[in-house]
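Milestone M4 deliverable, item 7.
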Amino acid sequence: MRQSLDELVRRHEILRTRFVIAGDEPRARGRSDGVATLAVVDVDGDSAAARQDAAMQQLLVDAARPFDLARGPVLRATLYRLGCDQAILLLAMHHIVCDGWSMAVLLRRARRALRGRIRRRGSRLPPLAVQYGDFAAWQWRPEADAELATQLAYWDRPARRAPADADPAFRAAAARTPTGRGGTLSLTCPMACAARWSRSPRARGRRCS
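Output delivered:
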């Protein structure tokens, strides 16, 4: 498992990157070691069910630990061993380097790398033609500004049509200076609005609750 994770970190330079503040501006700094951080925890318990419950409780605590972006790592791995033939692997990544779609890709690559190590023939993952830094630079190209303006206009139009007596909590949340902390805000959507959205082409194939 450790060798498989090392392979992923070496392959994806963003997974060995730190983020620091230099002159009031964020800057990316690379790490040269290319080694994953894997902690191994032996879970105690009188039964398999007790060990699994204990592992899940510890997993939730570990998953909620904050990241130190300046020191790294941005990927944390913890292997909870429940016995000689059962374990749970936690992969915790900061959102600055990963989203839901990327996590699914990473898990497929991790399975492939682990399978190859177990069969002693390597994962045979091809080198990446494009790294995350290349994608970030691509987003800063001049023509990206026009694309961004189009996307912002799509969301700006319905926001401008919001009634003047809209939920004040929504307006207050939008006016605050972003802190980077997550939160939950509940809004009421009229049935007519929900019905129109469910019939739109953008909603095809999605579930609405």
